[in-house]
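> tool_call: predict_assembly(chains=two)
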Amino acid sequence: MQTTQMGQNKVTLTNKDLNSMFFRSLFLLGSFNFERAQNMGFCFVMIPAIKRFYKPGKERNEALARHMEWFNTHPWLTAPIFGVTAAMEEEKANTGKVDETAIAAMKIGLMGPLAGVGDPLFWGTSRPVLAALGAGIAMTGSIIGPLLFFVLINAIRLTCKWYFLRYGYTKGSEIIQDMAGGRIKKLTEGASIVGLFVMGALVSKWTTINIPIVATKINGKTQTVQDILDSVMPGMLALILTLFVSWLLKKGVNPLLIIFAIFGLGILGKWLGFLG
Amino acid sequence: MNIIQIILILLVAGVAGMGSVLDEAQTHRPLIACTLIGLILGDVKTGIILGGTLEMMALGWMNVGLAMAPDTALASVISTLLVINTHTSIGEGIAIAVPLAAAGQALTIFVRTIVVFFVHKGDDFAQKGNYRAIEWMHVIALGLQALRVMIPTGIVLALSTAAVESVLKSIPTVITGGLQIGGGIIVVVGYAMVINMMDVPELKPFFYLGFLFAAFTKFNLVGFGGLGLIFALLYLQLEYSRNRNNNGSQAVAANNGSTNGSNADDDLDDDLDD
């Protein structure tokens, strides 16, 4: 049985510590690097908690070092991980019943599922939907477009980051049961459905492909290839192209290469007159 | 352009550069960065329109895992600057933005590699318990990401407007027109990225459902968002009840002596009862 070096009083995080961690978490990715991804950012956010739990010395140094390990997940959903990590560090500092391996295992265990839900929820659904909404308004020259996007996306982000940090800290390692349950899977699936549905709509409505070649001329009325395609199914070409690009990306083709190829096609089409 | 405008532009360039790595407040997105540059230069309308156009093109560009998207920060700041200062069209703006997005991506990869050095320094400081120094390493790395956009912007600011204008005006219309056409098509790359990220075969029909709804109705985006949400809820409810029924029938089968799969069944049951 290990004894605590902190005496009888249990050390907990103050509200100020949690606020400081929240504020720091807004700069998590600042030192993103190709060796260990978000590692130093993670340590940066944990510093207020480490300072609270460990007096200067070996234990504090070890705590700093263990949060310099490889870490990478969706930046907005790191909040619950910070909360749980703080709760476990607190347990370790106060009772010594939690060891380093448990903390590392928990971080690695939560990283994958949270990235799995964060990417479709935020990058796949919230951001593109709000950005498309904002951009649509912006193209008419109205400031409402950018404002709408900025306010809504940040309201979602800050609410999540603030709430989940405290949620993780209060629940501690119990949160792992939450994660293991069906809830995360449901959330991921639900977000993916909304994302895919809206993407489908965007493919049809917000892609501009026009083939102005005249196909038929009846009684002086001209009909272009595009008119015919639209009468069959609007946005058909966009759909085919999207599926083709999706296939190319899966084959590992660099997206920038595809982007440049499409611009090349645009210039060629303009020059030869088959795109307009 | 007066000195205050130059300072403000560099400031926005820095904020956008940091935003690009942080991916928090979204200041690196064209919709925000272009608008801010337009605001500073006194032509907010052009900034907003260019921002909206570029935002559409970049809709699905995102950093997932270790993969880097083309960089919107550098592209937005410099293209807006040039379009407004040289009174050129949105078409020229796109023509400038695309190569800049590629250049910005190369620069951020460069910075993210250099940061490894600061991380190793951070390791040493952790051994010594010097948390202040770790904080500094982190902040310096973030500063480098700001400089990554500020320095190229500064270089562009130093160029003579007349010279840039003559270069831009010398681009043949077949190129700028072609790039504008390309800009309308390029959005599919972003869509494809998003679709690939949510690559679950059972859910793919929802993509086609969205496509068909949009092709034959006049819903706007809010409508599509709402519809999507309802479909998601319905799917989850049905998926739920179906599993529950399956559990029931399989439990009967298990009682009849077939114990195969009953463990997996229990797991699923636990999940659902959570």
